[in-house]
Design a protein that fits this description.
Length: about 375
């Protein structure tokens, strides 16, 4: 197999070369620290959301079932990009095999469009909860929620499934250097030494039929929600109804804004600086999975209370361990004090020892009562 030279790297014809931050290669190891922190917070945050919803029976409601779908999708997106991103910034591993690249872009696009469907489902949930509150549980049954989830997954898989095969049939030549630290369809197809018109048209069709349609339906659902809320006479009730939508609105903005911006840059912003494209790519795939658990933990009372209970329980266990240790020490001290009494050291030792013992036991009794 022949080798092609690119700068100081050697690229095999069957591989692509991923990119980090251009011009900042000498500090990649330092950039990896905040990136790793973002991945860690994202994974732990989404796992915490899933754990709370699973273990708390009061959260087994349609709204939280959709939230668990969102957390699963964000978790999948983080795990899809983590190996290549940290591989580049920690170890300088820039090469990726064609098949591995095609598999990664399949999962990235599939999960991205699945998240768009989940956000639409959550908008439908808010619409029913506000506009048809008396029929909420009868409309959004477990069977309906399961069908919505399976339908969303089926749509994403069916639309993205042809992309790897469409890319695999192309020959690739030139530098084979990708803009981002992971593979995207719109990036890989530009490296093909063939006519990519079909891929470009199909990619545009997929975006319009998923992100375009979903965003329009979400906007329409909020028009209906506002129409219903404004008809409520009490201002307090209006604010209470709108407050239930704040978390979802934040999730929608966090997802659609960078996604649409990145698509516009790739298709129409050819003169945009390379650094802008790379940063937008990181914002697109890192920020939503990072921020969604934080937003829902802060704005959703049930989840916020459960998180506080979890951490307060851990603090109570630590306090209980400390109290038991203190009691054990006090018991040992009491035993020592008794031995001293038996040695007829009352005059020089018993008075301060007894005072210390009384204070210690009283303090520990108070802590146990608290």
């Amino acid at each position: 197999m022949t080798l092609e030279s690119f700068g100081n790297s050697t690229i095999r014809p069957s591989t692509f070369l991923l990119s980090g931050l251009p011009g900042l290669e000498h500090i990649h190891i330092w950039i990896s620290i905040p990136l790793f922190s973002m991945y860690l917070v994202s994974i732990l945050g989404n796992c915490m959301i899933l754990f709370i919803i699973k273990t708390e029976s009061s959260l087994h409601q349609p709204m939280y079932f959709f939230l668990s779908m969102l957390a699963l999708t964000d978790l999948g997106l983080s795990l899809c990009t983590l190996p290549t991103v940290l591989g580049i910034f920690l170890f300088g591993a820039r090469e990726i095999d064609h098949d591995a690249c095609f598999a990664q872009l399949f999962f990235i696009h599939c999960l991205s469009f699945l998240e768009s469907s989940v956000l639409l489902s959550m908008a439908f949930d808010r619409l029913i909860a506000i506009c048809r509150p008396l029929r909420y549980t009868s409309i959004l049954t477990n069977r309906v929620i399961s069908r919505i989830g399976l339908g969303s997954l089926g749509r994403s898989v069916a639309l993205i499934f042809p992309l790897p095969f469409m890319l695999k049939r192309f020959p690739y030549c030139g530098s084979q250097v990708l803009t981002h630290s992971y593979c995207l369809h719109q990036e890989v197809m530009k490296l093909a030494c063939a006519d990519i018109t079909a891929n470009s048209i199909y990619g545009m069709f997929v975006i319009i039929s998923t992100v375009g349609v979903d965003s329009m339906l979400i906007l329409f659902s909020y028009v209906l929600i506002l129409h219903t809320v404004l008809a409520i006479a009490s201002q307090a009730e209006r604010l209470k109804a709108l407050n239930t939508c704040v978390s979802h609105i934040c999730a929608v903005l966090l997802f659609y804004t960078p996604m649409i911006g990145l698509s516009v840059i790739h298709r129409f912003g050819k003169q945009a600086p390379h650094l802008i494209q790379v940063v937008m790519g990181f914002v697109y795939l890192l920020v939503p999975p990072l921020m969604n658990p934080i937003v829902y933990s802060v704005k959703t009372k049930q989840i916020r209370d459960r998180v506080l209970i979890m951490f307060s329980s851990e603090s109570s266990l630590e306090m209980a361990d400390k109290v038991s240790t203190d009691i054990q020490i006090s018991a040992e001290y009491c035993f020592m004090f008794r031995n001293c009494m038996q040695l007829d050291l009352k005059g020089s030792f018993s008075s301060p020892a007894s005072v210390t013992y009384v204070v210690s036991t009283s303090w520990n009794k108070m802590l146990l009562r608290v």
